[in-house]
Structure formats: structure tokens, C-alpha cells
Amino acid sequence: MKSELARLVAKHGGEPRCVPAVVERPELSAEVVSRLIDELGERRHHAVIFMTGVAVSLLFELAERIGRRSELVEGLRGLTTACRGPKPAAALRGFSVPPSLTAGAPYTGAEMLDTLGGVDLSGKRIVLFHYGERSETLAETLLARHAELEELWLYRWQLPDDTGELENLVVDLVAGRIDALAVTCQIQFRHLYQIAERIALRGDLVRTLNEAVVVGAVGPTTSAIMEAHGVRAAVRPEHPKMGPLVITLMRHLAERGALAGAAPYPPFTH
């Protein structure tokens, strides 16, 4: 959502610079989707867990492509569907499948586990649609609760083929040409850190982010990954969403005087 993010930054007085840090590459085949739809129709699964709205959309796109969308809808309606937050829940509703369970804010794996706390999973077949990489804590906890877990990916997160812009960003951050860094997903920061290692600027990057750049993390998972790599996020919005992140970050910059002539920011309303 780089265009939306850039518009928000510009609207609130900043000069946006969007750098691609991750690409989503398709993973699931039509054959696997067809087999899953067969199993859903045969009631061989107890629950399906969706971690992202993108996963929901891609699943239905594949089902539409093989002419089995209506069967997918019927199969999902016949079991428990659990969503990690409002985005996958809204996506399911958009395809006429009311979600059974929806995790609350801040929409991490921990909240997903809390939501599933009252569900007997022992010996039950559960399908978990991961996001771009494995949700380790969620998957391992479900296995520890003796669920028969099938883990599927509709897409994987990878570095862009051309990392030149990321390399330039690391150099510009270290050189003091960037005032703030907004990170909307933990994999973005991990890739930034990886590139800094590759060009021998890891230590300089960590020091700069802690001492000279205002760093905003969209939520607790992203913030925790940063801390694990030695970087403290100065800004973390109350609501783990892109809009609150930008407004909180820009307010912080205005209070520091980093935005020339910036007007005082009103409280963010959700």
C-alpha cells in the first residue's frame, strides 16, 4: 500500500520516500486448493485459520480460477473459521463466509491463540494459512495442544530481486539524510537489516536509528523484531494500523521541530 502510505505522509507535512523492502511470491497450486476443497466438502477438517486478508483473497481467486468457488464457500461455512483480526474477517464476509472467530487488537499470534482458547483442538484437523512466513509461536502452540495441523502458504515474503533502493536507503539513513522511518511489517525491517549487513553498515544503521532517526513501528510484533536487532522504536501507535502510525509519527516529528511550520496535531480519532 505504498501509494496510500505516501499520500498520508504528504498530507501531514512530510516528504515521503517509499522503498520496496519485500515482495510476495505465489506459493499455493491449483492442485492443492482443489484437494483442500474436496476435504472441506467431506468435513475432514475442524477449523481453518486465516492470518491475513490477502490469503483469503488469493484462496478464493484460485478457487474461482478452477471453477470451484461456490464449493469453497459451502465448505468453509460448514466449519470453524478463525481470523487474525478485521482484515481477514472482512475478506471472508466479502465472499459470503461469516467468520466464526476473530482475534482482537493488536492482532498478533498471541491474540489468535487467546481466541482459540475455548476451542478443543486435541486430535482435530486444523488448516493454518500462514502469511508470508511461518507463524512459529502459533503453529507450535497448536501442535502442543495436539492439533493435527496442516500448514499452507498462499504466498511467501522475499527480498526484491533488485535491492538497490534498499541499499541506497541504508546509506542515506546512516548519512543523516532521513528524518524518520515508518515500518509497517516486521519483515521490512529484517530485510533492511539484512541489506545493511551485506554492505557492512549494520552497526552504523543500528546506531543511527537509535540516535538520529525517529523510528515508527506499526505494532508490537514489528517493535519486538526491531528490539531483537538492537533498535528501539520511538513511536508506536495506540491502534496498530497504517493511518495511526503515520499521524503519531508526524506528530512526534512536529513536536521535535523536524517539520517546519507544522501546526499542532489534533488527537487521533479511530
Describe it for me?
This protein has 12 helices and 9 strands. With 270 residues, the protein is of the alpha/beta class. The protein has 2 domains: 2-22 and 161-256, 3-Layer(aba) Sandwich (Rossmann fold), CATH 3.40.50; 24-157, Rossmann fold (3-Layer(aba) Sandwich), CATH 3.40.50.10090. A 5-stranded parallel sheet has the order 4-3-2-5-6. Strands 1-7 form a two-stranded antiparallel ribbon. A two-stranded parallel ribbon has the order 8-9.
Compose a concise summary of this entry.
This protein has 270 residues and is of the alpha/beta class. It has twelve helices and nine strands. It has a five-stranded parallel β-sheet with strand order 4-3-2-5-6.
Averaging pLDDT over every residue, what do you get? 90
Fraction of residues in H or I helices: 40-55%
| Number of strand segments | 9
Globular, elongated, flat, extended or rod-shaped: what is the shape? elongated
How does CATH name the architecture of the largest domain?
Answer: 3-Layer(aba) Sandwich
- Strand portion: 5-15%
Count of alpha/pi helices: 12
CATH classification class of the largest domain: Alpha Beta
User: In angstroms, what separates the terminal alpha carbons?
Assistant: 20 Å
> What sequence of helices (H) and strands (E) makes up the elements?
HEHEHHEHEHEHEEHEHHEHH
Q: Low-confidence parts, pLDDT < 50 over ≥5 residues?
A: 260-270
CATH topology of the largest domain: Rossmann fold
List keywords for this structure.
single chain, 270 residues, alpha/beta, Rossmann fold, 2 domains, 5-stranded parallel sheet, two-stranded antiparallel sheet, 12 helices, 9 strands, 14% strand, elongated, disordered C terminus
